Amino acid sequence: MSDNGAVIRFNKASFNYGYNKPILDEVDFSVRRGSKITLMGQNGAGKSTIFKLITGEFKPEKGDVNIDPRATIAVSKQVIPRDQMDLTVREFFQKCFKEKVYNIDPKIVDVLETVNLHAPNDRIIKSFSGGQQARLLLASALIQDPDILLLDEPTNNLDKEGVAHLKKFILDYKKTCIVISHDADFLNSFTQGVLYLNLYTLKVEQYVGNYFDAVKLITVQIEKENRKNAQLGKKIQENKDKANFFAMKGGRMRLLAKKMREEAEDMEEEKVDVRREDKTIRPFIIPTQPNVIGDILNISSFTVLNLKNHKQVTKKTKVSLRKKQHLLLSGPNGIGKSTLLEALASKKAEGAKITDGIKVGYYRQDFSTLNFEDTVYDCLASVMEKHIEEDLRSVAASFLITKDIIHTKIGNLSEGQKGLVAFAQLVLLKPSLLILDEPTNHINFRHLPIIAQALDKYEGAMILVSHVPEFVKQIRIDETLDLGK
């Protein structure tokens, strides 16, 4: 492999994922040593599966996945596994290696410095914020000093400073790096080529150039396919209309009608199915409870963490939220934003009071409000005040929750699909207070403007935490509470 500079090569590789669900069909592509590549595709298309084929965790059913035998590989996953949440920092990093590393403490200090995180090696993983856990995931890959670095949604939960730090690291990284992310500006800062997993053809299309170049080319191709479909659709309808007319004439005209129907069928086969990976969720609204008046939430004080001495500090404030009032909660990673949101959602936050009878919709960045053992159907049905089958299925379909996944367990969905289920659940819940913790995490960038529009128009009270400025700009924010001030 090394003679042409390729460190990874897929050669006619095919893969099915359980229940005979095809992911890849005779895929061909290669990745050159030292290149910075983006892996694109819709939520659930199989991007993480490609990573598992590269690492050897999965094997292709047909064809080959060839990796330079001298190359080492490390993956920074999307989330820390639940069974590792009670480990210490030291134990967490030790699990990155097959054999025990006796002098691991200095290595941990160095790698945490690289990701701009400072913490004692005996601290428990679950005590870190979502943004700090994102840095730990990245550090767990870097500590292995791999030849091939695979990053799966590395910017999730990272604040602006963390994203800037990661950009610089990738630009300076001399080895091969493949990144899955929905952060367009982040990707464009370093991308030299794009691998595009087409959910309809089950092929991987390879593009040279930066991220925006690839998106432009893909968009042009989709428009071309849609124009062709529109032209064929017009001819098909004309043939069907003529066939119906001639069939009614009887005699020899029936043979002509039959011929025209056959031509219409041939043209139907010529049509290109609109790329499923380019479907977006439908515009939606999150309804609220009727007849809600007066204050929905009052906050008089909150507790945060002093990032210098790691001690808790209680601060006074005066925040009152009514209908149509949206609050942005800001502050650096680790200060306690998620902790505060969780306390508010559970109605256990000291110094805060939610009016009795108010329904609270809570979008957690780790999706732990969803029962991973439930099916998608049961998860959606559980929040409905009155179970109406038609409403459930209509809302599910608007979030691309189709009949082939509605009876799938939540735990078997991709992270992006879990995010769409969480939004569908909010629509069916009809809350008057919406609490959102990093709602852009894992979500396909095509869906984000639609989600932003829904939040902008939301008529209940809302508290939002997001480190994505472009997303926040699209939403009406009435007040900002900076926990760091």
Concise account of the structure shown:
The chain is α/β, with parallel strands linked by helices. It has helices spanning 47-55, 89-94, 104-114, 130-142, 160-172, 184-188, 211-249, 253-270, 337-345, 376-381, 389-398, 415-429, 448-456, 469-472, and strands spanning 6-16, 22-32, 36-40, 62-67, 73-76, 148-152, 176-180, 193-198, 203-208, 297-305, 312-321, 326-330, 352-354, 360-363, 433-437, 461-465, 479-482. Among the domains are: 2-72 and 146-215, Rossmann fold (3-Layer(aba) Sandwich), CATH 3.40.50; 297-482, Rossmann fold (3-Layer(aba) Sandwich), CATH 3.40.50.
Describe this structure in words.
It is a single chain. This protein is an alpha/beta fold and 485 residues long. It has 14 helices and 17 strands. It has a 6-stranded mixed sheet, sandwiched between helices. Strand 1 and strand 2 form a beta hairpin. The chain is globular. It starts with 5 loop residues before the first strand and ends with a strand.
What keywords describe this structure?
Rossmann fold; alpha/beta; 17 strands; globular; 485 residues; five-stranded parallel beta sheet; six-stranded mixed beta sheet; 34% helix
